[in-house]
Every structure is written in C-alpha cells, then in structure tokens.
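Troubleshooting log. The previous structure file for this entry was overwritten by mistake, so regenerating from the original sequence record. Sequence copied from the archived sheet and checked twice against the printout by T.R.
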Amino acid sequence: MTGTGEQHGAVKEPRRLRAGSNEIVLDHPIVIGIINVTPDSFTDGGNFFSPANAVAHARRLVADGADIIEIGGESTRPGATEVAAEEEIKRVVPVVVAVRERWPELPISVDTNKAEVAAAALRVGATMVNDVSALRLDPMMGRVVKLSDCAVVLMHSRGDVSEMASYDHAEYGDDPVTTIIGELASRARYAESIGVARERIVLDPGLGFSKRTEHSRAVLLGLDILAECGYPVMVGTSRKRFVKEGMAEGLAAMKGAEDLVDPAEFSISERDAGTVGASVVALTRGAMLFRVHDVRTHRRALDVAWSIVKSDHS
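Regenerated output below.
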C-alpha cells in the first residue's frame, strides 16, 4: 500500500505533534471538526455565528469523535472578501474562550492567516494555527508562531484570500505534484529557518485551493511523496469541488453521459459521503489529520480504514 511505510510500518513509534500544552500522538487518524463562525462560508455560513450556537456545535463534534476543534472567522470561498482583523477577533475569540472553558484539555485550532487574530486566539487558549497561506500573507505570522508553543498547519495556496479558492493561479505545468509539493516544502523550510520547531509543523496540500480538479486528484494520489518530507500531513477534502465533480462523473458513467448531474445539485449529505471516499484515499497515501464537517461519519470510516492499513504493516 502506497505512502504508509514510513509512518505506519517502518517507524515503530508514532509521530507526535506538539501543540501548546497538548501532545497529539499520531497513532490513529486525527479528525478535526470545523466550526465556521462566519456569515458566508461554503455550506454552513451563519449556522454557528453566535458563540452559543458555536459551542453547541462543538459539543456535537466532540461527542461524534473529534480529536481537535478548529474555529475560523473568515471564509475562503470563491470570491470571498477579506475580513478586518478586529472583526475576525470578535468572531473567533469568544468561541475559543467558551470551548476552552468547557474542554480544558481539548486541542483548539484557529483558522486564520492574520497574525493579530492568531495571537489573540492563542492568548485565550488556542493551541494550533491553521494558516491557509503558509505564513505568506502576513509577515508577522511567522513571529507569532515562533514565539508561541503552538502547532502550525502550513497549507499550499496561491494568491490572496479572494483568489486562492479560484483558478486564477492554477497553472502548474506538466508535473503539478512536484511543483505543489516543492512550493509547500519551501514554506516548511522557511518556518524552521525562523525558529519554528519541526515537531510543531503540519503540511496541508490545499486540495481545491488554486487547483483544478485534476490538480487536486494528482496531489491526493501523490500524498506519499509529501509525507516523505518528514512532516505530518493534513488534508481538507470536505465538500470540495473535486469531490462533487467525481460524484457527477460516477453517476454519468452509470447512467450515460446524457444524464450528467450538475455537481452543484448534490445535497450536503451526498457531498459528505463523497468526501469520506477522498479522505480514505488520503489515509492510504499517508495523511494522518483530516479537517472535516461531518465528524461522525469520518470517525467511523477512518477508524475502519485505519484498522486495515495497520494490519497491512503489522
């Protein structure tokens, strides 16, 4: 099985990710439950905009098996406009405080590319920063991460917030996997060069960000190469465009091309089902962290897949 040898077979001791006071042992798939405290996210915009609703959702995510809760206050949907740091802090910090009070030991990630927001969230209990720009967009983000003991997710993307979910910069030549992994690995080297400890770094190939469907598929199949860089790999397959297009292609093959389904017509539950398929593929290729909306289904599917992957290397 591709991509699991170093992490799942040859290395007897599992990797450990340092995230503030948390040490996350990567001896099983780590499921990260998403809470978007925004009015305009892809599929759940506005649902958890109030702290009370967000905490209620966090309770469901934890009960469903989330290992980490991630809170984000700015949408990265296609055409999204940048949110001012002050507004993003108002959205995120009360939720981090409330979640930390309810679950004192739970790892909490903040999804932001702004140093000011990250610093505010870390001060009140976040232990991880997920920067979709891999420390590109805010020159102070590297310093905030360096001075903290948090974990940091470096995600591959191109362009600014309004561009990265589009195809504006989706040109990779004949070998997109090598290009994308090379760009992401360079961000990891940068993080280490400014003093971020290696055991605090996670890499995310940014499926669907500045990538056409063929690019996301290629990178998903090339995750074993990314894992060879020596960092834990996280993926965010949840409800992405390439998942919906794969579902539409499957239905077309079954029914005939004339019955091609518009990918936009799939329900959220259908998209979540398709997402699980992509996540399981990612697990077999070396990913160990999964950022998802549907925690319950992923917890069960990934646990079963993991039991099979482990047996292949026992």
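The CA atoms of residues 55 and 99 lie 6 Å apart. Archived copy saved in two places this time.
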